């Protein structure tokens, strides 16, 4: 960086990790791989029936690595630049520098590419040769690949997946074009610098693959392929960022999390793009037997979604549209288990049918259905996008989920309330329990939202929804003033991961500060220290709510044992086991900062804030917060908070925003381009009660 400090967004190493699972990933919304891996994946393309379905392996033409003859031994560096969305390999000798850039194009999602550039650094005329090593073979265990005719200098293969997810279901066809890779490239004696570009285009139609490849060639001809990618990525990153004046490892972790999560989302302005969700290990992982086989879990809706909603409602909408398109499968899931409405699968792939290989999770871990609907609720509160619900299928999901929860409850004559029996809570160490407090609370929230939305849309509200929401049991120990995890839970019994603590956030279940504290103190020592990476983020959020900032930071610091060097790849468990490139853990970590340090809470009528952060953080700046169509920039120090509207919808003059301080009730009108400031305190952003003059 210009001031000589290490750039927290650039990760450089002189060697690669010994575990290839920990190599950096290059992905966009459609294509993904790990660098130097022999396969890539295509979003939504799975092979195998039901519990055997997994991301289809596609041979990767971009698995190419530079080498030089043995007589030369240049210095070697590997760099992931999260500001430009590129991975680079550099060989540097006294006479020349050879650089390889590898990337998945952010806006042209059917393209992946790499370039080789050799530049002289000494006045010599000796040819410089760089060898290109690749194990690429155009074969796949999941596709019946056939060779087609070359196209504009590219080789071409195409083929269908072998086994559909459900009998009679679709078997997508993949079409791939790629630039042939020579064994070596040479900078001739009279040349000072030269670049070579290698493209790979993948699509589910021959026409789209060829169109994308031709478009890529045209950009190469004008020297603008890589610049067009870095511009698109830079625009994305500048529009949604969180910057801290604080410890370097924390800054690096945030840049890494944002890079890997934002790599997974559709580019802005692509409403016709069919998005197929985000799996725990992302698109770079998910072959058979790896990273949950590329299936989509609650991880997407609960752990990743809130961060995307805060910055990029268009991407958040794409996730909800993924769930809407799989409603038919969810309806079948409920029907097959003897219930009404829609039961979203614990593990989802192409159809929305349950594809979890182990029946116990698919049958019992039903809180996922409420998690899906909570994402719909958060989206509606943050955007007021009525079109999604009135015209684009959102209401059908809300209605179906409400009907499912009502059919899943049974009346307890003894306790005079509704029970949900025989479930597995988020704490997967326990199964077939009755009245999981998290499951029941998220079911209650589903029903309240469904009834409220029906009222907003003048749709008759079924009495059953109101009755079930009002009378469902949410376990609470009135003597100890805490929430037992389920009926019969014994205090101190080991817990796998965040469960009851999720009542406070993200559920925002009503409770006093005393109860919130008791829940945290009850479950913190009971939770396995080596469990999934997202757990401690939620304990951190809870302690920040209670202004116990150092206790919060001690919890958040536990996450660093899940972050690997040098490319900040997360592992699911701190012992290195489980999923890698664990976006779920990254999503939880981002929430601890974006919702913890700021105190942001999306409610039905406002975006609340209540900042709290440790002493070694002097300033928190969050750019690109989206609320009701406006973009906001928050700059927060211990003493002062500054809010600026950086983008406004056309109708802002008719429905302007204002900031309100909780203690004094003081109001600050928010208008485009202008900043307001006030002493750091709790408050909220809302539509102004009267139009701004």
UniProtKB/TrEMBL annotation:
Signal sequence region: none
GO molecular-function terms, A-Z: protein-glucosylgalactosylhydroxylysine glucosidase activity
Pfam family, one: Glyco_hydro_65C
Annotated keywords: Glycosidase, Hydrolase
Catalytic activity reported: (5R)-5-O-[alpha-D-glucosyl-(1->2)-beta-D-galactosyl]-5-hydroxy-L-lysyl-[collagen] + H2O = (5R)-5-O-(beta-D-galactosyl)-5-hydroxy-L-lysyl-[collagen] + D-glucose
Alphabetized PANTHER family for the sequence: GLYCOSYL HYDROLASE-RELATED (PTHR11051), PROTEIN-GLUCOSYLGALACTOSYLHYDROXYLYSINE GLUCOSIDASE (PTHR11051:SF8)
Name of the molecule in the record: Protein-glucosylgalactosylhydroxylysine glucosidase
Record organism: Rostratula benghalensis
